Amino acid sequence: MRVITRVDLKEGIKRICRESHYHLQDDLLLLLQQYRDNESNEIGRDVLDTILENAHLASAVKRPLCQDTGIGIFFVEIGESVVLEEEGLKDIISEAMEETYREESFRKSTVSDPLFLRNNSGDNLPPLIHWEISSGNVLRLTFFPKGAGAENMSRVRMFKPLAGKEEIIDFVLDTVSRADGNPCPPLIIGVGVGGTFDYAPILAKKALLRPLLARNTNPEWAALEDELLNRINELGIGPMGLGGDTTALKVSIIEHPCHTASLPVAVNLQCHSHRHKTITF
Predict the structure, then answer these.
(1) 24 SS3 class
(2) Where are the domains of the chain?
(3) How many CB atoms lie under 10 A from the CB of residue 183?
(4) Are strands 139-143 and 73-79 parallel, antiparallel or unpaired?
(5) Is residue 278 within a helix (H) or strand (E), and if so which, with residue range?
(6) Which of 99, 195, 272, 277 could be disulfide-bonded to 16 (CB atoms 3.0-4.6 Å)?
């Protein structure tokens, strides 16, 4: 049995906090290039060229992909047999993220009082951590910095239990239409269907982390993802809201059982600067 040391854990977390801001995933770069090559709108092509150039420069010179370095979100999957050298995993995550934002001069965007004072915390703390217990001895952490432009345009709705597929499609399309250029398209769109009022948005956020080139293993849900993506791109919002064929790059859905009397649906929008990084111990 391997004991995970505090030093290894903290350095690993700092690495993913740092690298997520400098490097887009290969699957996202591939999609951006593919959509750029198929974009019929000249302005849309120019915007996608600029997005790709920005990504390459950020990676080369180690500068943030976006000035909004986001609120710090972590998904932590911890095996029941994992042994840590020291207790206090939450504190280690917080410490590692705070040090990274300070050392790399990332913008701190968290306000301590959300309504009355709106005072900046100065350290981007606390991180938002979603915990999941699994079997085995694996500890997996995903850092997912989320900017406000796309997050502000996200929505959740409680449908009647007999709502059909078209009502859900209309809700997703209306969410994207209302958002227009505010979330900095082209978008990655996560949809959570089922669970409860609070759980559906977590499903939608987790859906954003699915591999962009992978298809849903359920044929019916895969077909719904394809239909949503096609209809969203028919809206003509285009890159950065300036018009074109490329409003979204990917729609991913995660479904979950729910109460017989309800049907929660959440839509979490993500901008083209889709930053995340995972480390596994």
Answers:
(1) coil
(2) 148-273
(3) 27
(4) antiparallel
(5) strand 277-280
(6) 277
**Dist CA 65 CA 63 (whole Å):** 6
With a threshold of 0.90, does the pTM exceed it? yes
**Among 179, 210, 15, CA closest to 99:** 15
Cβ-Cβ contacts under 8 Å for 179 (sequence gap 6 or more): 150, 153, 269
Give pLDDT tens digits for 41-75: 999 999 999 999 999 999 999 999 999 999 999 99
Which two tokens mark 129? 């951590």
Task: Residue 136: count other Cβ atoms within 10 Å of its Cβ.
Answer: 11
Distance CA 233, CA 187 (A): 10
Q: Bridge partners of 111?
A: 120
- Give the Cα separation of 186 and 33 in Å (integer): 12
127 residue type, one letter: P
pLDDT for 3 equals: 83
Bond from prior residue into 186 cis (ω within 30 degrees of 0): yes
Amino acid identity, position 154: S
**Residue 271 host element (H or E):** none
Strand order in the sheet with 73-79: 128-134, 73-79, 139-143, 277-280
Query: How many C-beta atoms surround the C-beta of residue 133 within 10 A?
Result: 10
The answer to whether the peptide bond before residue 257 is cis (omega within 30 degrees of 0) is no
Q: DSSP 3-state helix, strand, coil percentages of the chain (rounded to 5)? A: 40, 25, 40
For 20, the enclosing helix (H) or strand (E) is helix 6-22
129: β partners: 74
